[in-house]
């Protein structure tokens, strides 16, 4: 490798000499030709004629060598490019295979983890319903705790699986009708919204966005789901969603505002990290992964996510997302 | 009594499915893997001996549920038997793949047991009734002709 690089450098250094040789050769030939045309001495003319012949030959050889050098360098570059392309393709193939292996591994793990949870969940439910009225308050509480923990484990596995897929699995990007996405999600959250008497209101117009529909839906679902979950008990629980122009070119800034329990200043950055939850939120079920998923998705799409909040007054989550082409 | 065949490798899940379906008037038999089920089905000589419905797990030892289904469809008397996938995986790609391969229903086990039980019974009853009505319609058209 070292030797081949040295020879390449040598060739590189040689190349500027060829045009110089050609230039000097041509200049010399022209001078001789001029002497031949205007000279009167026959011997001198003979000499000049021979010199012209020699110079012509040298000139042809130089030009030939120059052309050969260019050609061989082009060939060498072509070979290098082909080799690098082949290496890159091999690496890509290797990575794709590794990715496939990881996907298979995660799939197997998730299945193998879920199977015993399903069994425990099933048998606990059967026992609970068969024992029914014979259970005292404490025993009923134990069964509820078993089932709640199993539900939590299920969510944890699902969230970790999702987190492992973001950025690793290529998602199809498309133009997304934001209003339709939001309407669908509000319908999905309706039972929980009714339970907590929360309303969701779209406060502004929404442009069409561009990106992975699935991931954008996930961002909205996690943020709206959290807003509903951590609404607390305000007099008039409400969530507002809006959109404005982002300072970042080609992006919109979306905000989701609630009048819920709010987040203390010291937790406002931490909550975006994995398994980090604000102490105020512990009363509600959650894995501590949802906002980390949001952050990963938004940042992979080139945007940022942040929160402004005051405990007891509510929170506003902001995130940036790419607008579709042609959208103002 | 309707004959249901369950292809499921997890003994706990076999018990749970049996429990979920216990109130129905069903005769449930069980195979632990696809290969032994296929071997058994190949010995069916008459249409009356074929099961009325098959419950199939997706992740099975040796051969996965979709592959088992493809092989089942090649066996005489099983070409049109409804097959319902019952599995822990709720991934969209797998559900799509299962329907493409030809399952009639897809029930995930990873839900609340009561919900799972109701859903499974509904899907089974729906397909048993559908097959029953199709058979009835066939025999009536045969009589007419």
UniProtKB/TrEMBL annotation, chain A:
Keyword Transferase appears in the UniProt entry: yes
Localisation: Cell membrane
Ranges where the Histidine kinase domain occurs: 108-325
Keywords: ATP-binding, Cell membrane, Coiled coil, Kinase, Membrane, Nucleotide-binding, Phosphoprotein, Transferase, Transmembrane, Transmembrane helix, Two-component regulatory system
Reactions catalysed, as given in the entry: ATP + protein L-histidine = ADP + protein N-phospho-L-histidine
Source taxon at top rank: Bacteria
One Pfam family this sequence matches: HATPase_c
Listed Gene3D superfamilies: 1.10.287.130, Histidine kinase-like ATPase, C-terminal domain
InterPro entries: BphY/WalK/GraS-like, HATPase_C_sf, HATPase_dom, His_kinase_dom, HisK_dim/P_dom, HisK_dim/P_sf, Sig_transdc_His_kin-like_C
GO BP term (any one): osmosensory signaling via phosphorelay pathway
Keyword Membrane: yes
Coiled-coil regions, chain positions: 74-108
Enzyme Commission number(s) of this protein: 2.7.13.3
Transmembrane annotation, as ranges: 17-36, 48-70
Main location: membrane
Gene Ontology MF: a single term: protein kinase activator activity
CC terms in the record's Gene Ontology section: plasma membrane
UniProt-recorded name of the protein: histidine kinase
Taxonomic source organism: Candidatus Danuiimicrobium aquiferis
Automatic annotation (TrEMBL), chain B:
Keyword Phosphoprotein found: yes
Keywords: Phosphoprotein
TM region positions: none
Domain Response regulatory intervals: 3-124
Protein name: Response regulatory domain-containing protein
Source organism (scientific name): Candidatus Danuiimicrobium aquiferis
Family annotation (SUPFAM superfamilies): CheY-like
Highest taxon of the lineage: Bacteria
Keyword Phosphoprotein (UniProt): yes
PANTHER family hit by this protein: RESPONSE REGULATOR RCP1, RESPONSE REGULATOR RCP1-RELATED
Residues recorded as bearing 4-aspartylphosphate in the entry: 57
GO terms (BP aspect): phosphorelay signal transduction system
Matching Pfam families: Response_reg
